[in-house]
Amino acid sequence: MKKFVCRDIGFACDFTAEGATVEELMPKIADHARVAHNMAQLDDATKAKVSAAIKDA
Ligand SMILES: [Zn+2]
User: What mean pLDDT do residues 7-25 have?
Assistant: First the structure.
């Protein structure tokens, strides 16, 4: 499993997401960013941060 913790990219936020693969996880993170952080799309810098923050769980 892959795990993402929103706080790891600097948000004061308790969101976490898990998925079997990064490909499964990314849409969940994008949805969360849109709803919770008002980011219509993840820009390249944010995507890079997200990728770096995804850990094996
Ligand atoms: Zn968040």
Answer: 97
